[in-house]
Amino acid sequence: MSLLYFVPLQVACVMTIWSQLQPAYAANMWNEALNKRLGTKGLDLSQVLVEVEKRGSSFEQLLTIPEQDDWVYSDGKSTSCIAFILEMYKAAGLFNPIASSVQVTEFTIKDAYILNFFENNSSRLPNWCNDGDTVKLPYCQIKGKYRMELPGYNSMEPYPHMNERCPSLPTKYYRPENC
């Protein structure tokens, strides 16, 4: 058996134990999100697992259902800082004409900076941008003692369902083309 078989099993075991030890935390952390993916309400983790089995699906498949930008939870929208920024990009039209087929809640910081949304011509950057630096970056680093390295910066055109089916197993987090 491959390691991939055991990962969802281990996740389910940890979640089950955590649900027993900290039920309120578990409910806030994943129960509502799992219910959203199933189209149900109020099921705890064990009930979610039973429902998944009834539907002939698997816990692994449930975990891979992409988060939807329009889902609202009991405590409001669930978003990260980068999803918030990308929501603004989306509202400003940067993802048009494919905006309705992009779920920015599925993006990581790297996914955001590799988007081909930024200035390509480094001569158009402000003069102060790379002033006094021996390495001329294609972007402005405003502050910081250490230089930021952004592999793949400004290199990818957005595409429908971007990042919705990307594998995320450690340690390499290999990203197939157009996953």
Automatic annotation (TrEMBL):
Record's signal peptide: 1-26
Lineage top rank: taxon: Eukaryota
UniProt protein name: Uncharacterized protein
Keywords, alphabetical: Signal
Presence of keyword Signal: yes
Source species: Arachis hypogaea (Peanut)
